[in-house]
Design goal:
The chain is mainly beta. The chain has a single domain, classed as Hypothetical upf0131 protein ytfp, CATH 3.10.490. The chain contains two helices and seven strands.
Length: 153
């Protein structure tokens, strides 16, 4: 099993979360909410208002999201779903686990940091780095940039 940190449309309550729940793609089990240890720019960009984590560690904000334990089959599906490596790159980063743990998960005595895979953008239009940086994403959030789901494109 691998740990994957999701920060955008794959989170619970967001438009693409259903793909994590679909057993036909493999297994994905929610582990905890989390926050990147390092800051990164999380921006909303492009004609479909997609949330992008720009691979600029040390810039931006500490980004909140969710950590999932996924099997190899789900990891391969997510690579395809995220158009990796053509559009997104799957890289590793450290995530601090927050309080919302899966039922039955042990409570650590101190904040726990784990290594996770994340889908981020290493190449992007330079102006994206100047867009507003978010610490959390909600497709219907106060930013007013409503996500356009794939099925509507």
């Amino acid at each position: 099993m691998a740990l994957v940190f999701v920060y955008g449309t794959l989170k619970r309550g967001q438009p693409n979360h259903r793909v994590l729940r679909d057993g036909a793609h493999g297994s994905a089990a929610f582990r905890a909410r989390g926050r990147t240890l390092e800051p990164y720019p999380l921006v909303i960009a492009g004609e479909h208002n997609i949330p992008w984590l720009l691979h600029l560690p040390g810039s931006g904000r500490r980004v909140e999201g969710e950590v999932y334990a996924v099997d190899e089959r789900m990891l391969r599906f997510l690579d395809d779903f995220e158009s990796c490596p053509a559009l997104y790159q799957r890289t590793a980063l450290r995530v601090q686990l927050l309080e919302d743990r899966a039922p039955g998960a042990e409570e650590p005595s101190a904040p726990t940091a784990v290594q996770c895979f994340v889908y981020s953008r290493a190449t992007f239009p330079p102006e994206w780095a100047q867009l507003p940086h978010h610490d959390s994403y909600d497709s219907e959030g106060p930013h007013g940039l409503r996500y356009n789901p794939r099925e509507n494109r």
